[in-house]
Amino acid sequence: MFGLFACATPALAHQALLSLQHRAQEGIALATAHTKLEFKRSCGLLSCAPKDFFTPAPHALGQVLGAHHDFYANNHLAIAFCGNLHHSTTPAKFIAKALDRAQATSLEAKLKEITPTLKGAYAFLLLTPNRLIAVRDPFGYRPLFVGALRSGFALASETYTLQALGVTDIQEIPPATLYTKTGAMLLARPTPRPCVFEAIYFSHPSSVVFGQSVYAMRTKLGQALAQEHPLQADFVVPIPNSGTLAALAYAKELGLDFAPLVSLNPYVGRSFIESTQESRQAKARQKFSLVQEDLKGKDIILIDDSLVRGTTSKVVVQMLKEAGAGRVYLLLSAAPILSPCLWGIDIPAKNELLSAQGGEAAYIGADSVGFLSLNALKAAINAPFCQDCLIPKNKDSHV
Ligand code: 5GP
Ligand code: MG
């Protein structure tokens, strides 16, 4: 999500949405505010020209729609929401209705009144004809950044978006903070538990999270993987695009041959967000192909960022084996995912998580499967983070 206050233009709003597209792909929502509020929604990826989607106005609020990316607007207020409220499947609307019922008089005071009732993970932006306000939960699960743009300010889920807009003085909005043009207000006692998946997979490589560039962090994860699993093979092959940086660093660390032999067709779209295992598999098969078919007898170290259901790696390992590859060793530049996420990442129930079931290599058809240890992940991140998905839980719920 992004917000622009006293600096919006059609071109900037368009650029902001494009720079967030990797975070959700099911739709686009945009509100603009001048003396009144206008809003639009469309399905799928952003495909129109800036002027077709955006009515010129000084303020704008936009969201890419999908799992844990919500939006609500009426004639006087729009809310873009990232995260997961445990008591609502329409969190942006839930917040708007809670504000309607709040007793306090000012918008800030209403927000202060209602935030203790929000259970779960949330970062949201709220636009009215003359205000843009940001709120981040006490744990800081979902990322949120702010910076200066022209005579106004801009807010976004990733620094990449702000960088792309030419924003200066980029700062993280701290957990438990309500941010407005005039300053920041602490809403509760902050207990930071930001989501580690932003570093592992979700954020754009140009972004900064945990005070480090994502590019540098994924490089560190690849180096750590080389230290923990120093294997020998003919080629180190990334599963694109999510495994590329770690694979490159892994190969460099061990002096092995980095070979991007798997190609990804970006027009197929995300296989992960399909609703059935069959359609996820079919889409993964459509999405990946080998750029070199004759791999007879070649041993391969295949690297991806993470293993969830094992769909992606099973499909790619099968392709490599069909092309005659010898041994295929799968490595993941993250610790095993053992529990579902309740804090805004699409990590499914435990019975769908391959590492929670065990037998990863047999299911995938790889000769071995290795993960980065949680300790190595902690060393690379070097800041507190939420580990709920990386720790085994007896039940699906850990609220
Ligand atoms: P799997 O195929 O094992 O179910 O999922 C792992 C693959 O999906 C990895 O390549 C990873 O980059 C990607 N992935 C992991 N988490 C997410 C997510 O929340 N959303 C999407 N779209 N992809 C994900
Ligand atoms: Mg991937």
Automatic annotation (TrEMBL):
Keywords: Glutamine amidotransferase, Glycosyltransferase, Transferase. Pfam families: GATase_7, Pribosyltran. Its EC number is 2.4.2.14. InterPro entries: GATase_2_dom, Ntn_hydrolases_N, PRTase-like, PRTase_dom. It is an enzyme of class 2 (transferase). Residues 1-184 form the Glutamine amidotransferase type-2 domain. This is Amidophosphoribosyltransferase. The lineage of its organism: Bacteria, Pseudomonadati, Campylobacterota, Epsilonproteobacteria, Campylobacterales.
